[in-house]
Amino acid sequence: MYDFYLGGSHNFAADRQLAARTIEAWPDVAHLCQANRAFLRRAVTHLAVIGVDQFLDLGSGIPTAGNVHEVVHAINPNARVVYVDADAVAIAHSTALLAHVPGATAVYADLRDADAVLSNPRVAGFLDLSRPVALLMFASLPFVPDEDDPAGIVAAYRDETVCGSYLALSHGTSDYRPDAVRRVEDVYTRASHTMRLRTRDAIGAMMAGYELLDPGLVDIIHWRPEPQSPPDPLGGDVTRYSMLAGVGRR
Ligand SMILES: C[S@@+](CC[C@H](N)C(=O)[O-])C[C@H]1O[C@@H](n2cnc3c(N)ncnc32)[C@H](O)[C@@H]1O
């Protein structure tokens, strides 16, 4: 469904049917997915520029324009990127794309089990967790239900990383348009994963133990926008994105 919103071609009829219902409930969904990808690029660029050279992308999705390894390798060709997703199609496409990319790999795993992910031989063999690593959780935690304790999951990863590691996170918020959010959440009850948008406080709790880089946890289009960016397609109305983003240092 996310691939469809982004205008990709790796989607099936069932995805498109359900995605059409999301678009009815939230007509701006394509813009917010693009804003999420733009934040990914800005955050990952910043981390690579300040010297982070290991990235663990949790809930990485189907490859699309501006993948993490492409952004990172343009700055540091020796950096390492591990993609993790529980969607077999996403991992199959990622694996094919990375066949001749020595600095990146894709692993099929459930991000909710931090111990299993971090001890997975493909992850442990690729990243050196005795050195700083950037954890990337772009629009993946909404697919973790409350009963699985998303903040606890992030904390489990945090505690396995050394000081000087980073967390970059984006997450839809229910604060601005609760009725439309409920309609979207209802569409996702028919999808393979349910989706839960959360309050600013709940999203902020996921970043506990991290010192937030400026400007903090903010509306996604306000996280270090680039001066050369084209005008905002939604006129800067953050409620139409309803997505928060932040980067923190452990
Ligand atoms: C909206 S997409 C975001 C993709 C990418 N991070 C981005 O921001 O462009 C969410 C991704 O999270 C993945 N995901 C959801 N729950 C997951 C889980 N428990 N373990 C691993 N991946 C998961 C989905 O399969 C999907 O690919």
From TrEMBL:
This is SAM-dependent methyltransferase. InterPro entries: SAM-dependent_MTases_sf (IPR029063), SAM_dep_MeTrfase_SAV2177_type (IPR006764). The keyword Metal-binding does not apply. Signal peptide: none annotated. Keywords: Methyltransferase, Transferase. The keyword Methyltransferase applies. Its EC number is 2.1.1.-. Pfam families: Methyltransf_19. One of its GO terms (biological process) is methylation. It is an enzyme of class 2 (transferase). GO terms for molecular function: methyltransferase activity.
